[in-house]
Write a structure and sequence with these properties.
about 450 residues; alpha/beta; 6-stranded parallel beta sheet; 5-stranded parallel beta sheet
């Protein structure tokens, strides 16, 4: 019998794009929460639905096996998929809550979607939503619940963890590592695991939702991060790592100290991370390479300075080219996140983004469309235009949720054509041209360069 059965709602096979990519990562935040409860003296079990074919049926079996006193749906708040608040994830969370209720076990929830839509989660049967960072609240809820209080009466505090080094290492022993390893090896020929060096992001792009970590930025010590890398490399056989930080290498000084700590510990493992173009200076990139970095994903968003300024991004288009050159010099793959459909974007702005991609020649791109999430100034701006569907079903949806300049179909074709061009395949620009012609008042002459 476990005091707490921890789970999450990221089911890979419910997301067609992620199933194609086959790059599954264990639920890091869930595992840290499990370790924190263990350290406090509670018994825990994990139900990880990520790679299962029948997650709800298997969850019911886990309830029978572990007979928990509490179910905690703790999302991996470091995973960008969780931050997208996808409808299929929500449906699975609600299904697990219903199953727990049938078994007579109260359930609590934590994550971006639960924080944004607390009332919906409570209506679905959750006894409580724990907003923000999970560690300060979950331990108190469990302690008071097991002390005899009714879970419905416990007020969950919202706070942040000031000293990240005080948190225990993630409870990796709860994970079926073989299931993850086999899928990585079959799809890519190596095994990748995830870790973080920080929480939050201090920048204020007006479309970026931060319901869990807010705009604070806290980091772990370089030595603790290096030790984490060594553990994943030595104890779990990781050939590759993904730093899932919102923003990595914010401080050049920290990055240099991190590289030195990794070198001293012999912990270097090839890794990828995400950051900003303007942070990829020569010194920082050199330190990243020393630490083992092989791939950087940067939020370029647009090749139009007008759109970057409207987003309050705080970067300039030329930063993309500078970062690309610095990364190229050190043999690090440079990859760009792009965002189309932001209010005010015209075909001229889209063309500038296409031109930027052609000039920068990134190693890979990720394409999205403007996605209004609660708590952002962007959401406030377009709230009156939102349709009944307010969230994507999965990460490949790319649906326009408000009245944009172009249709959902246009942006999907645009994304497919640009992806194909970057990969060196034959891009289907004819489909994009045709959709542009169909748009009322569209300028047909601007397509000559495509």
């Amino acid at each position: 019998m476990a005091d707490v059965l921890l789970t999450h709602s990221n089911h890979l096979y419910s997301d067609r794009k992620q199933a194609r990519k086959m790059q599954p990562y264990p639920p890091l935040q869930t595992l840290i929460a499990a370790a924190q409860l263990r350290e406090a003296g509670f018994s825990v079990a994990l139900f990880d639905p990520a790679l299962l074919s029948t997650p709800l049926e298997d969850f019911r079996a886990a309830l029978r096996t572990h007979r928990p006193r509490l179910v905690a749906v703790v999302e991996d708040n470091f995973n960008f998929l969780t931050k997208m608040c996808l409808m299929r994830n929500r449906e699975l969370a609600f299904g697990m809550c219903a199953a727990a209720d049938e078994a007579g076990v109260p359930a609590v929830a934590n994550g971006s979607d639960a924080t944004d839509r607390a009332a919906e989660y409570l209506r679905a049967g959750f006894a409580m939503v724990l907003p923000g960072e999970v560690e300060p609240a979950l331990e108190e809820v469990v302690r008071r619940l097991l002390g005899g209080e009714r879970v419905e009466t416990i007020a969950a505090p919202r706070g942040s963890v000031a000293d990240l080094d005080a948190l225990p290492d993630a409870a990796w022993d709860l994970v079926d590592m073989d299931a993850y390893r086999v899928r990585w090896q079959q799809a890519h020929g190596y095994f990748s695991l995830n870790l973080v060096s920080s929480r939050g992001c201090p920048f204020r792009c007006n479309w970026c939702a931060k319901p869990v970590f807010g705009s604070t930025y806290r980091f772990r010590s370089p030595e603790r991060v290096a030790a984490d890398m060594l553990r994943l490399k030595r104890d779990y056989g990781a050939d590759h790592l993904w730093f899932a930080d919102d923003i990595f290498a914010l401080s050049g000084q920290w990055t240099l100290a991190f590289a030195e700590a990794v070198d001293r510990a012999g912990a270097a493992v090839p890794f990828k991370m995400q950051s900003r173009c303007d942070l990829m200076t020569r010194d920082t990139v050199g330190a990243l390479r020393l630490a083992g970095c092989t791939e950087v994903w940067m939020g370029a968003e647009s090749g139009s300075q007008k759109i970057l300024d409207a987003m309050e991004k705080g970067t300039r288009v030329e930063h993309v080219y500078q970062a690309r050159e610095n990364l190229r010099r050190h043999g690090i793959r440079a990859c760009l996140f792009l965002q189309f459909g932001y209010p005010g974007e015209t075909w001229e702005d889209i063309q500038q983004t296409i031109d930027m991609v052609r000039k920068a020649q990134p190693d890979d791109i990720g394409v999205s469309v403007a996605y209004p999430l609660p708590g952002t100034r962007f959401h406030d701006r377009v709230a009156a235009e939102l349709s009944e569907k307010e969230n994507w079903s999965d990460s490949d949806d790319l649906a326009m949720m408000f009245r944009g300049a172009y249709s959902t179909e246009f942006y999907r074709e645009l994304a497919a054509a640009l992806h194909a061009e970057v990969r060196g395949d034959e891009p289907q620009w004819d489909s994009v041209r045709e959709l542009n012609r169909d748009r009322e008042g569209a300028d047909r002459t601007v397509w000559t360069s495509c």
